[in-house]
Amino acid sequence: MEFTLEAKSGKARAATIKTAHSTIKTPVFMPVGTVGSVKSLDVHDVLDMLGAEIILANTYHMYLRPGDETVKKMGKLHGFTKYPKSFLTDSGGFQAFSLSDMSKPKEDGIEFRSHIDGSKHFFTPKKVIDIQLNLGSDIMMILDDLVALPATQERIALSIERTTKWAEESIEYFRGKQAEGVGVDQNIFAIIQGGTDKAFRTKSAQELCALPYDGFAIGGLSVGEANQDMYDTVEHTTQYMPEDKPRYLMGVGTPEDLIENIERGIDMFDCVMPTRNARNGTLFTSFGKLNIKGAKYKEDEAPIDPECNCITCKTYSRAYINHLFRSREISYFRLATIHNLHYYLNLMKECREAILEDRFAEFKADFYQKRQ
């Protein structure tokens, strides 16, 4: 992987990430394709309608169904899904933690039961890497010890201790695999933990960023803490992250969250919000959120967002999209998802242009002005 930092506007960064499968311009939002598919879209929508250079797939879900060995036999993620650009796969630890009725973090991994059939499984740092080697993702995330907030100081301290231990084990194992000729085109990121405690975040960041990872993520945020606590934690943590490697904030968030965290030096984001909200009738626009199910849109001839040039806005009225939603027509889910993801991806392009022209502060002010 090649990472080139091209410009800064304040702390906001514009960069290029080159993987074996695509060239990614940052800041970047990665659509979530949990089971190797962005919900309601096909590969042509993702490529031609959205132009997405990277999407996220979920290690936990692909491991349970259809199974990582099956994915490997079918040409790994790229061959199986026919999406030719970059994939990032998360470690699956969060899903093992959040979806399982029985999830137990232990010294050497996470024990959990499948949400599909109740079968028992155990994720170790090495196993998670082996699964992702089979998936063939361009960027893989390591197993980290997750903490539900609020948590005791003792539990957060244990989380950092385990996360660092597993990170050391993971990087040694992965680099060993690469030396054997396995996963040579794949890259690996570590995940900084520590809740909203700045001392813990400092400790975790310093320990992990000393290891030879290709990039670093901030995990364990957007889990119910106040927005300002998230922003303060990110601002504190990024100062300990390398300038010459990608910075990824996991599972975030609203358009406002993206703007605020780009301002604090983050390069990469993912979140189910644009796709999930689309399916539930909430559409993102340049002037804020729009609830398309509202009766007031029944005869509204305007597009969802007059400033948007996605296929949905260029072709259909709010009245028609409202009709499709109220009829539960399948085409609604596709058209709404295309719009929301287009909005997010276009917002990232606009942020990048503002950074390259060193006017990000003005861009942010205009972004909020429109929402008033």
UniProtKB/TrEMBL annotation:
Binding site for Zn(2+): 308, 310, 313, 339
UniProt keyword DNA repair, yes or no: no
Domain tRNA-guanine(15) transglycosylase-like: start-end pairs: 11-371
Biological or metabolic pathway of the protein: tRNA modification; tRNA-queuosine biosynthesis
Gene3D superfamilies noted in UniProt: Queuine tRNA-ribosyltransferase-like (3.20.20.105)
Cofactor(s) for this UniProt protein: Zn(2+)
The protein's name: Queuine tRNA-ribosyltransferase
Gene source species: Sulfurimonas marina
Gene assigned in the entry: tgt
